[in-house]
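seq:
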Amino acid sequence: MNGGAVPVAPWQPTGAVGTDGWSVTTASPRDLSFAAVPVDRAGFDQTGMATTWKESVLLTKRVRQAYPDEAAFTADRIAVSDYIYAEDIAKGFTNGSLETSPPPIAAWIMPACELVAGSVHWEIAAYHRDARSDPITGVGRQVAAVRVRANNGTEASPWQTVGKTSISTLCQDASAMECFEGDLDIGALADGPFWLEAEVFPWFGGTGSVLKSEARTGQREFSRRWFCKNVTRAANPPMVYVASTGDDALGEVSSDSATARAKPCRTLGGAWARARTVLGNGRGTMDGLRVRVLDTVDSGSVPYAVSYPQDCAAVVVERAPETSRSNAVVRWNTHLRCYFKDHSPGITEGALTFRDCTIDRTAGWAFYGETAAPLHVQFHDVVMRNNGQPGTWRTSSHVSIFGMEMTGYANTLAQTAAGEVRILRALDADLAGGGPEAWVTLCCRLTRANAGRMADAAKGVIYHGNLFLSPVASTGPIGLSAVGVADIVGPVAVVQNLIEVTHTTAQVAAFLLAAASGASRHSVVHHNIGTGAGQLGRWNLYYDENAGGAREHRLHSFKGNLCEQLNTKGDIFAQDGTRLGQFAFNHGVGCSGNYAVSHANFPEAEEQDFAGPGTRIGAGKVLFVNDRSTSGTAEAPVAGMGGGDYHLLPESAARAIQPKPVLAFDMDGMARGGGAQAAGAYA
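struct:
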């Protein structure tokens, strides 16, 4: 013998995976050993093909006993760093997990009902709790792949599969919109209506974990998106110009712009009527009609007709090429009812698009659809002067925004039974304490926002890339709760948002997820920034302390976030040993690389027992370039000035703490690259 120390073999635990999927039992458990358990996971590759990934999960925190014995560990349970699914094979462990990989969370994020020729542009935002670094490039990806094809019911295009994300240039986003996108070749399809269908493949899971748009029918959901192919008409669409000097009785309708410009109509309503008169009454008469605005014109009323025949493609109101957006003004001076009917089978709505123009709303006017054929109004890079006028714009109609600078907001986009807000993308508005309907909210700049209300908590929401500036003191801008105590909230994706708190009301949390009420299923919370001072700007997540009933939170992913204070409540806070619904989160499952400036007010009852690898709780000031949010303390707060710069200084302790990337780009559109990542929205 050489007298040296005898090598100690690394711990190779064996045992069983619990039915919950987030804990294992093993003999002689060790606390925070971070021993790796190899796992073979069924899933999909970057082409959407089935494969098996070789991964590892870590054994982390020993699971404690429930209140009132919370100071003691259970005899043999240990939490794992992330869920083990029923179909996984974990080396050395019998797998009793009942959890399966949930389908991704996704949305189409581009206008539909366009008139197209040989190709169609599509964009999809997709999220999943199993976001990971691409095994080939090392770049973060939320899902493995997306594929899209066109289908007209008789023939379909080949699938177009995309396995990497890019930054969209579709509209005037307030921050970079990372998405899957493509230009799909539809040259082989016959002219006529067709729909896009898509499938989104998670990294892990079986065929039941693939999200398919064909499985959903609700128009606001991830379902079919209709378009109209007409090669000739797309190259030379019918046009009618409108001008303050025009004549509704004599306006010219022509595919030649000079001819149409020479004799403009005077109002939008007049332009509708002239188009119907000149183009005829056959199906598709109004498809792809361009109404070009030369100066300031009235919307006017659309003269009654049994129908203004529209098959699929939207009527587009846009500025004339020689007129600037600010000078192409539609004065919305009456209710606008379009009477779009006579759609092909499967198409249930009329479509109207305002693009690159200004709308001046003079009173509480609305868009009117038909009971049997609601109207879908799309706004694409417009200015909306709402002028403080009341009303939600919608009567049997729905709204989608892809770029809007709005002034004079007056709860215009609030939830109403009269119609849906389907997507808010690139909305720039001072909401003056209002809360828009929460569904898909992307890359908006929202000042003085209140929390949006979810129409259906079980169908979830997406918040990505939004700037919430100086939210109101009554409630936080992201408040995701259900109606009933045990109702499900989710799926939910809250990714790369910034909340700049400037108020001094300590009772208000900036971000709530299933805190006030509701259980949660599949929540993806990645790389967000919350500012403020301690509980002024706190986040309240995954509570199970409500006297009205128990709640359970499952399949969360909480990574790379940066906040002032993080609170979660369960058995200890409630002093009730049955309130274990947030036990997985409490033990750091699905959590890593988060940074909280301050501790909770009552850490022993409101903080996680283990917050996940790389996480720093109560770590002190984060060192932003220019923090202009609320400062001071809860007892002596100092209101923020707003307009701060929340990039991290080079020496910030929040850098390089998220072990692996889960996104390819940051909020500026800068590539995140591989390796350890900074917490927050900026690389």
